[in-house]
Automatic annotation (TrEMBL), chain A:
One Pfam family this sequence matches: MlaC
Record keywords: Signal
Matches recorded under InterPro entries: MlaC/ttg2D, TAT_signal, Tgt2/MlaC_sf
Leader sequence residues: 1-29
The name this protein goes by in its record: Toluene transporter
Keyword Signal applies: yes
UniProtKB/TrEMBL annotation, chain B:
Record GO biological process: intermembrane phospholipid transfer
Recorded family membership: Belongs to the MlaA family.
UniProt name for this protein: Lipoprotein
Region (Disordered): 1-35
Keyword annotations from UniProtKB, A to Z: Signal
Tagged with keyword Signal: yes
Superkingdom of this protein's organism: Bacteria
Gene Ontology cellular component list: membrane
Keyword Transmembrane in record: no
Length: 208, 285
């Protein structure tokens, strides 16, 4: 009896969860990319402008990145043609390293700014994705034109690229990696080792 | 003593004779020297073709796609220029720019940056006209007028607050709007990323800059020098953090600069091409 009740509860909980998912999915898909970017942007700006310590800011930003940025898709794009020649072990290692590198790159810059604000502009299609224009305003610096490229391929809207003053971050990164690989013997292993060194260096600098 | 003088005279005579005898064949000699320069040029091109200055085209289709995307035929030469520029920068311009940021307070620096931008506004104006974008040209013209007067010789960007924000333009972009392809990527020593087209554009812009035609006197030449020096230091100072971050974040900073530069130039050219605003501002109608 207890077991069956527990089971029933479990089923109803699962059903509720499934319903919740099915109800929230269309809502998420229907959510306009501009609204998604506005929401993500205001959360980021609130963290950047807060008086928290850099470590605390990092802690707050991490879940946002995990939830709203498709890091795996960006990682695959950045490896370009070498993704197809990489072994499964290399792919797994690469994805792990890329996550860390990206998080380091973003969180390093969090402490640099205060008094940041932004406005959202028009949305335009880029292939199957949507690019949302935004202008970032920083005190004492010229306004920066940005585009947030949002993909809904995974069901929920996720950021897959940021274009700053016309330069796509993922494309720039891909050309950086491609050039590094081709100049280091053409092996993915060389890139993985370089990324590892980058992370180690970052940790030692942060540790001091 | 006397024999020495005699020797000197003899040498002089023989030299004169040779000069005189060479007189009639002067044209021949000129063709010879042109030929020599020509063969030097051919030799350089052959050398370049042999791969010391250029990268050979890869055979693999995917690698070829990557090669075409990078658009960097002269990569070996460009990398040498890049390394040279970075080393020189490290010991000259970068420390100067850092000292400048340390010594000069931010409001003064931004005023000088405003002035540099205003002084460059005629170049933007001429290029806007060249690109056939009257609205942009008008904006540049109004910016120059407002900032030179109300903005105290360009030190305050009043025009921005009056609704005329700055926009970039240069002859490289004008040529791009005319459909001139960028040509291969170039890294110019001490000047940074460029392309064949943008390098030519730089030359045109230097010619379009009124400040380069100032007459002697009135301290204008001194002002032109001071302007160029301050502008160089100021724009380097603006990039201190960016370049430092780049060297930290990029595995191959050269390739990252190359990629970002070419994307940004393309985006700028596209934004000028796609600016179809009406010639007159809204308040005019």
């Amino acid at each position: 009896m207890i077991i069956s009740l527990g089971r029933r509860r479990l089923f109803s909980a699962l059903a509720a969860l499934a319903l919740g998912v099915t109800f929230s999915r269309p809502a998420a898909a229907a959510e306009k990319p501009a609204d998604f970017v506005r929401q993500l942007g205001s959360q980021l700006v609130a963290i950047v402008n807060s008086n928290l310590s850099p470590a605390e800011k990092k802690q707050k930003v991490l879940p946002l990145l995990q939830q709203d940025v498709d890091v795996d898709a960006i990682a695959r794009f950045c490896l370009g043609r070498y993704w197809n020649v990489a072994t499964d072990a290399q792919k797994t290692r690469y994805l792990g390293l890329f996550h860390q590198v990206l998080v380091n790159a973003i969180t390093d810059k969090l402490g640099d700014y205060r008094g940041v604000s932004f406005t959202i502009g028009a949305t335009s299609p880029v292939g199957e994705d949507k690019a949302v224009d935004a202008i970032l305003m920083r005190p004492g610096q010229p306004d920066a034109n940005m585009q947030w490229v949002v993909s809904s391929a995974s069901g929920a809207p996720k950021v897959v690229d940021v274009v700053g003053e016309g330069a796509s971050l993922r494309l720039t990164q891909r050309q950086d990696y491609a050039s590094y690989i081709s100049r280091s013997g053409g092996t993915v292993e060389a890139l993985l080792n370089a990324l590892q060194r980058q992370i180690d260096k970052h940790n030692t600098v942060a540790g001091h | 003593m006397s024999s020495e003088t005699g020797d000197q005279q003899r040498t002089l005579h023989s030299q004169t004779r040779r000069l005189l005898s060479d007189g009639p064949t002067h044209t021949n000699r000129r063709t010879g020297s042109t030929g020599r320069i020509g063969s030097l040029l051919v030799a350089t091109l052959t050398l370049a073709g042999c791969g010391s200055l250029t990268t050979p085209k890869p055979k693999d289709p995917e690698a070829l796609a990557e090669y075409n995307e990078a658009n960097d035929k002269f990569e070996p030469m460009n990398r040498k220029m890049y390394n040279l520029s970075m080393t020189v920068d490290k010991y000259t311009l970068k420390p100067v720019a850092k000292a400048y940021v340390w010594a000069v307070p931010r409001p003064v620096r931004s005023s000088l940056a405003n002035m540099a931008q205003t002084m460059n506004e005629p170049v933007v104006f001429f290029n806007d006209v060249g690109a056939g974008k009257p609205r942009r040209a008008g904006d540049a013209f109004v910016r120059w007028c407002i900032n030179m007067t109300a903005g105290v010789g360009g030190l305050i960007d009043v025009a921005k607050y009056a609704g005329y924000p700055h926009h970039d333009n240069d002859a490289g972009l004008t040529l791009a709007t005319w459909g001139v392809p960028s040509g291969p990527y170039l890294f110019l020593p001490m000047m940074g990323p460029s392309s064949v087209r943008d390098g030519i554009g730089y030359g045109i812009d230097t010619g379009l800059m009124p400040l380069n035609y100032v007459p002697r006197g009135y301290g204008l030449l001194t002002f032109n020098w001071a302007y160029n020096i301050v502008n160089t230091i100021n724009s380097r100072a603006d990039r201190i953090d960016d370049l430092d971050n780049l060297e930290k974040d990029a595995l191959d900073p050269y390739a990252t600069i190359r990629s970002a530069y070419q994307q940004q130039r393309k985006a700028l050219a596209d934004s000028i091409k796609n600016d179809h605003r009406a010639t007159v501002p809204d308040w005019y109608n």
